[in-house]
Design a protein that fits this description.
128 residues, mainly beta, Elongation Factor Tu (Ef-tu), domain 3, two-stranded antiparallel ribbon, 1 helix, globular
Length: 128
């Protein structure tokens, strides 16, 4: 199954992007409690300040040697969602749909003539 980015939703997209090549595996999927402040005293006691925020889930997709048309289409998608400003639906390789926000900068480098490689980080919306 192909991955798809659909804005504003998968059910009624006004803009979508389906890469012509799948991302490099493994696809990163990180879960973390990002707002915890932690430390250790001189005596070895561990101190943790936990504001009880939900765990943050991130997806990292690494694309290698996409054609220029893909790079142009994903750039249009990035400009439309305005990086993190607008959430959208991400359909993963297994067909699961997750509400996400684009979290990283748009960073696609020319890897060869007419081919571009880059990484996209997505932040799962809380409660999605």
């Amino acid at each position: 199954m192909a991955i798809v980015f659909s804005y504003p939703t998968q059910a009624s997209p006004t803009l979508s992007w389906t890469p012509s090549k799948p991302p490099r595996f493994p696809i990163g999927h990180k879960r973390d409690f990002h707002r915890q402040a932690r430390g250790e005293t001189a005596g070895g006691a561990v101190l943790v300040q936990d504001p009880s925020t939900p765990a943050r889930e991130m997806f990292e997709l690494v694309f290698d040697h996409l054609p220029e048309a893909d790079r142009d289409q994903v750039a249009l998608f990035f400009d439309t969602v305005r990086k993190t400003a607008a959430p959208f639906d991400y359909t993963d390789p297994g067909g699961g749909i997750t509400r996400v926000r684009w979290w990283s900068a748009f960073d696609f480098k020319q890897a060869a003539a007419g081919r571009h490689s880059g990484t996209i980080q997505l932040l799962k919306e809380p409660g999605a």
